[in-house]
Design goal:
The complex is a heterodimer of chains A (263) and B (357). Chain A has 263 residues and is α/β, with parallel strands linked by helices. Helices cover 38% and strands 24% of the residues of chain A. In chain A, the strands form 2 sheets. In chain A, strands 6-7-8-3-9-10 form a 6-stranded mixed beta sheet, sandwiched between helices. In chain A, helix 4 packs across helix 5. Chain B contains 15 helices and 4 strands. The two termini of chain B are 25 Å apart. The chains are: A alpha/beta (263), B mainly alpha (357). At the A-B interface, helix 2, helix 3 and helix 4 of A face helix 8, helix 9, helix 10 and helix 11 of B.
Chain lengths: 263, 357
């Protein structure tokens, strides 16, 4: 737990005059569950986009497993072992759940437009079936075997979130970035999701970095919490320390004086 | 290729291989094999006219499948498919007559040559989308048409160029009956190729790029590469279809490969069903048979009392043309998802009859 898997060094990101991120630096320890919290518009998703390659920061570096990935294309990061899910559902709506998850194996498969169609002759079938076996393990783990043939676009919200997690897991990631994995879920689904996150962290040895608004979940399952506010890092540390910090209370949780005034 | 369909009792799958077949059930596969065997015997009892129609379905069907891979599966658009079809026809004729490459080799080679040209014109496709892309591909249509008119060494200019019949180890496929088998083989081969493409890595990547390009990129799919490759595969199919056309007719001239042909290909896949391989074939069969059916309808009309009204007799040709347009508009309104979707609904209805729930 001491070695860091991801280092973010003084990352700044601006859209014109709007500064989304200012000088944010942090380390994610290998094997940990790292959460980012903060009010809406604090730059949490921008931070995640900088790490996954959607945005390129104006300044600063993102170092993943010792490689500087700041200016790398998003598709090349999959090879390095970085997976993510999206805040708004981003499944391939017309593909079946199984095919969605198989897309996650894309960068590990070798067959192409010439050898794939020569299915039986080129060994593409053997390869596909081998990867199918691995995908089935992920499906078993996330308990979605009953919907594996369903078209992804027809599923309920909670299940789609789970399929998205499965797809990200199929990448064989070292680090998985989860953007609000529990938004819009009921208590039972949240409990399930929290269990999956803990299990994939412990059993599959995947480092988890997530954005989440549910403070109960964040405090329960995180090893480390970072607070962003107006694009700046307020504090990071153990969940209890962060909770106790007066700045955090003011920025995000609301201090008791305010509550009393409000009531 | 998998979908959520009801499987009949007793259809147990005990391996992933059994779960990943082209045809959903064993019965469907048997029926497809029987249908192909049945088609093999067709020249024995069908006359040349119907064989011509089938050969037409074959080369148009191959080219239309290419367009469906581009438009239906990858979500791009192309208004230049007719020109690529023509390029394949000229390329194969040129390869076999000028370079003396055997015809059965020149057909796939023409496919690859068309693929290269298609990818060249597809370069902007990696960068622009929607209507803008439609206009950009329209440019490819006109550029290639102009090329046919000017490049005498390639296309024979206004005189056109002749293409040798398919010659396999001394056996000439120069009649309708013999070419029918070439067309059937090519159709089956290219459709199986398409089915396998869609159930392997790159086919899934195409659909992923269409459905959600942002998350496709995160999954490690290089967007530009796959948009370009889709253009390439689509042109490859167009080239094969065009080459078959050339060697069937034995003569190619530039007049046929206009924007009208490109639009006709689009109509075929819209009627058949975008993003469906069997739908493509249905759309092509529909578009080939529709004028024939209407023609015979006109014939029937001439025999009735209506046939005596001069206005009707004079206008029959126009009525036929209008009816084609009307049927297509009807399809767009009542069945926008195409024949493949309607077929699935009919199948479900019979499967659950009389309990529709």
């Amino acid at each position: 737990m001491t070695e860091s898997i991801l280092k973010v060094e003084q990352v700044s990101l601006a859209f014109g005059g709007v500064k989304a991120l200012t000088d944010v630096s942090f380390d994610v320890k290998k094997g940990s569950v790292f959460s980012i919290i903060g009010p809406n518009g604090a730059g949490k998703t921008s931070m995640l986009n900088c790490i996954s390659g959607r945005y390129q920061p104006n300044e600063g570096n993102v170092i993943f497993q010792g490689n500087n990935v700041t200016n790398l294309d998003p598709n090349d990061r999959a090879d390095l072992g970085m997976g993510r899910t999206f805040q708004n559902l981003a499944l391939f709506g017309h593909l079946s759940v199984l095919d969605n998850i198989m897309v996650g194996r894309h960068h590990l498969l070798k067959n192409n437009w010439l050898t794939g169609p020569l299915y039986w002759a080129s060994g593409a079938q053997k390869e596909e079936l081998e990867h199918r076996r691995i995908v089935e393990e992920v499906i078993d783990f996330l308990e979605i075997s009953h919907i594996r043939k369903a078209v992804a676009g027809t599923l309920s919200y909670g299940l789609r979130k789970r399929v998205e997690l499965a797809r990200a897991m199929a990448l064989n990631p070292k680090l998985i970035l989860l953007d609000e994995p529990m938004a819009g879920m009921n208590l039972e689904e949240k409990e399930d999701m929290a269990r999956y996150i803990l299990d994939l962290n412990e059993e599959f040895d995947i480092t988890v970095m997530m954005i989440e608004h549910d403070m109960g979940v964040v405090m329960d399952i995180s090893h480390e919490v970072m607070v962003l506010d107006f694009g700046k890092k307020l504090i990071s540390g153990l969940p209890d320390e962060v909770m106790a910090d007066p700045h955090v209370k003011r920025a995000y949780l609301g201090i008791e004086d305010d509550l009393e005034e409000a009531s | 290729m998998s979908s959520l369909t009801m499987r009949p009792c007793g259809d147990f799958r005990t391996s992933y291989k059994q779960d990943n077949t082209i045809f959903e059930t064993k019965t469907i596969r048997m029926m497809a094999i029987i249908a192909i065997l049945g088609l093999c015997t067709a020249p024995l009892f069908l006359d040349g006219y119907y064989l011509t129609l089938f050969i037409q379905i074959s080369y148009l069907g191959i080219a239309a499948l290419g367009l469906n891979i581009l438009v239906g599966f990858t979500g791009q658009i192309s208004l230049g498919h007719g020109a690529f079809f023509g390029f394949g026809a000229f390329a194969s004729a040129w390869l076999s007559t000028s370079l003396h490459i055997p015809v059965f080799l020149s057909i796939p080679l023409a496919g690859f040559l068309t693929m290269a040209v298609g990818m060249m014109f597809g370069l902007p496709a990696a960068r622009i989308k929607g209507l803008y892309l439609a206009i950009a591909t329209l440019a490819s249509q006109f550029i290639i048409e102009d090329f046919f008119a000017r490049a005498d060494w390639f296309s024979g200019g206004s005189a056109g160029s002749s293409a040798d019949p398919v010659n396999l180890f001394g056996f000439l496929f120069d009649t309708d009956q013999s070419f029918y088998y070439v067309a059937l083989f090519a159709l089956v081969f290219m459709y199986i190729w398409g089915c396998n493409l869609m159930r392997s890595r790159d086919g899934r990547a195409f659909v992923a790029v269409r459905d959600h390009y942002l998350s496709a990129e995160i999954m490690g799919i290089k967007l530009n590469k796959y948009r370009l490759l889709s253009f390439g595969v689509s042109s490859f199919y167009a080239g094969i279809g065009g080459a078959l056309y050339a060697h069937y007719l034995g003569y190619v001239s530039a007049e046929g490969f206009t924007i009208f042909m490109s639009v006709q290909f689009l109509a075929m896949i819209i009627i058949g069903g975008m993003g469906s391989i069997k739908g493509t074939l249905m759309g092509v069969v529909f578009m080939v048979f529709l004028p024939e059916v209407l023609e015979s309808g006109v014939g029937v009309m001439k025999m009735t009392d209506w046939g005596n009204i001069p206005l009707v007799v004079d206008g029959l040709a126009y009525i036929k043309e209008m009816a084609i347009g009307l049927v297509i508009i009807g399809f767009l309104i009542f069945e926008p998802e195409g024949l493949a979707h309607r077929w699935a609904q009919i199948k479900n209805y019979w499967k659950f009859y009389p309990f529709s729930y």
